[in-house]
Design goal:
4-stranded parallel beta sheet, 243 residues, two-stranded parallel ribbon, Rossmann fold
């Protein structure tokens, strides 16, 4: 939502996609009234079936040219892998990885034909190390980071940039969806707001930055992982995610 507001404030029209069409339409009314831009809403669960293909076909039929693609849909889960539900993890993989990858492919091909465009894939500082008690989530974000960096290199010099936004823990609905309020990562912590992260990420996308890590301490932690023994990285990660 905050990313939509940042783009609208910059004068950009929007296509908003999420499961809850009612909430999207309420946001559409708010943004159109405040910023005098056009908002097109699509109610769709991107983790389901051919949802991404249907999304692409709908925007194409509507004659919408997507200049900026922001793949922000995603969620996490908290708990030991052996005890968590496969159904939720399967949906997480479909949304965090499959939908993001397919969406990038479809809209990137159009961008290449035009010779312009920007893509931002929302990864996480969780992408930089394994995450005991959030094993699947961290693995999906490691994929997003690796994938985004590779595509960024492939399209270099073709008028297109790809940015992997890597926020740390952020005050948002994520903690509710992941049921991780009791983890050391978020409990009693003053977290940056979603608005702060959105403004940072949007600016990084406009600059064409390949990897954008929000927050100085997050940057230090992410950068230091490569210099630590893997066993130590796992111990630190386990402590952060523990209750």
């Amino acid at each position: 939502m905050e990313l939509a507001k940042v783009h609208a404030a910059a004068g950009g029209d929007l296509v908003l996609v999420a499961r809850n069409k009612t909430k999207l339409d309420a946001l559409k009314q708010e943004l159109e009234a405040q910023y005098k831009i056009s908002v097109y809403t699509i109610g769709k669960d991107l983790a389901a079936g051919d949802a991404v293909k249907e999304l692409y076909e709908e925007t194409t039929r509507a004659g919408i040219v997507v200049d900026y693609l922001i793949n922000n849909a995603g969620f996490g889960d908290y708990g030991f892998f052996a005890a968590t539900k496969w159904s939720k993890e399967h949906e997480m993989i479909e949304l965090n990885i499959t939908a993001l990858t397919q969406c990038t492919k479809l809209y990137l091909q159009d961008m290449l034909q035009r010779g312009s465009g920007k893509i931002m894939n929302v990864a996480s500082t969780a992408a930089f190390q394994p995450g005991p008690t959030m094993a699947v989530y961290c693995a999906t974000k490691a994929y997003v980071l690796s994938f985004s960096e590779a595509i960024s290199n492939e399209v270099a010099g073709k008028g297109i940039t790809v940015t992997a936004l890597c926020p740390g823990a952020t005050a948002s609905g994520f903690q509710d969806a992941a049921a991780m309020h009791e983890s050391q990562l978020v409990k009693n912590k003053k977290l940056p707001s979603a608005q702060q992260v959105a403004e940072y990420g949007y600016a990084a996308m406009l600059k064409g930055k390949a990897v954008a890590i929000h927050g100085f301490m997050n940057y230090i932690m992410a950068s230091s992982v490569g210099f630590m023994p893997r066993a130590l990285v796992l111990k630190i990660s386990r402590k952060l995610f523990s209750k």
